[in-house]
UniProtKB/TrEMBL annotation:
Name of the protein: Uncharacterized protein
Organism: Nonomuraea deserti
A Pfam family of this chain: DUF6716
InterPro entries, per the entry: DUF6716 (IPR046561)
Domain of life: Bacteria
Length: 338
């Protein structure tokens, strides 16, 4: 494949932008970093490029925070008709920002077809559900399904094996938890490509993983577990009305479902001709110099937060973490002395 681009400092990126004078800069970072890059690092570029940002994966419910941090960008890209409507509503109330553009998620290919198979795939997540007992219930329901249906291979698809580094550490890793439970059933554990698992799947289950969208695109019958609540905290509000919500009892019985066509049209499966982001971007480039997006974080009351975010683009993450740990130790020490 292609060689990965080099990792450079924020100042180096600024110098690169001054030298190459790009028409567009894609700012694909966390919200606070997007804000500090656009408002400070890239401030004053001439000619001013069009700044584009967005949110990966599922962004329902739309949040004011996501909009505010990216309000300095001229184009904000999201991935469903519903997300476009919700963020436009926030923009109408708060002001700031630029256009909201629609782009289909790249892994939801319209021509995708599953190969068929005998696998039931459970997509794990690091953050939900958190409690050990809830994770145990999921594993036991999967094991019950495997016991009832010996012709099926039930696979727990992990983000990483228990001894591998992850973005979000899990206190109760499913593979380790299963071993501590005494392995009371027939389950397999696998890392690697989700797509490879789904092409051999007869069913898919998750609490709220975005992989549910890939399963829908491949026509794999699916189940989104509602036992632990349907809420923003569980990241599964988007699946209300999809027809996919069900329980651990449904899982144990192998009761998988097909998503409603109406829900699909509003959520990530719109026709390709509805993708408007490229046309919006072309218009913004051709109209330069137009009126740039107005950040809602311009003002003295946000200066301290921006200084903190600036550290994240200037200091290596390892050094930054070490600094935060030292700061916490000093605070604990001073508290113990008081």
């Amino acid at each position: 494949g292609r060689e990965a681009p080099p990792v450079v400092s924020a100042r180096s990126v600024r110098r690169l932008a001054e030298r190459t004078r790009p028409d567009v800069i894609l700012v694909a970072c966390t919200g606070p970093v997007v804000d500090v890059l656009v408002s400070e690092v890239f401030a004053g570029l001439r000619p001013r490029p069009v700044f584009v940002s967005g949110l990966p994966g599922i962004s329902v419910p739309a949040t004011e925070k996501a909009w505010v941090f990216r309000s300095g960008c001229d184009l904000f890209v999201v991935h469903s008709e519903r997300e476009v409507a919700e963020f436009r509503d926030i923009a109408g109330r708060l002001g700031g920002g630029g256009a909201v553009g629609l782009a289909r998620l790249p892994f939801l290919r319209a021509d995708a077809v599953a190969g068929g198979g005998n696998r039931i795939v459970f997509a794990t997540q690091a953050k939900v559900p958190r409690p050990r007992e809830e994770r145990e219930r999921v594993l036991l329901a999967l094991a019950e399904l495997a016991g009832r249906r010996p012709e099926l291979d039930v696979v727990v698809k992990l983000r990483a094996l228990e001894d591998e580094r992850q973005t979000h550490n899990e206190r109760h890793h499913y593979q380790r938890l299963w071993r501590e439970m005494g392995e009371p059933g027939r389950l397999a554990f696998a890392a690697g490509s989700m797509h490879d698992q789904l092409t051999r799947a007869a069913g898919f289950v998750t609490v709220s993983s975005t992989a549910a969208l890939e399963a829908i695109a491949l026509g794999v019958p699916s189940l989104v577990l509602s036992d632990f609540g349907v809420s923003a905290e569980m990241i599964n509000l988007v699946f209300e009305g999809s027809g996919l919500l069900g329980t651990l009892d449904d899982l144990a019985k192998g009761d998988f479902r097909t998503a409603s066509a109406e829900w699909c049209a509003a959520n990530y499966f719109h026709p390709p001709e509805r993708n408007a982001w490229a046309g919006l971007l072309a218009g913004l480039v051709s109209d330069r110099p137009g009126t740039p997006a107005r950040s809602l974080l311009d003002g003295p009351e946000h200066a301290a937060a921006r200084r903190k975010a600036r550290l994240r683009v200037e200091v290596h993450p390892t050094m930054l973490r070490a600094g935060y740990r030292a700061k916490r130790r000093v605070r604990r020490y001073l508290k113990a002395l008081s």
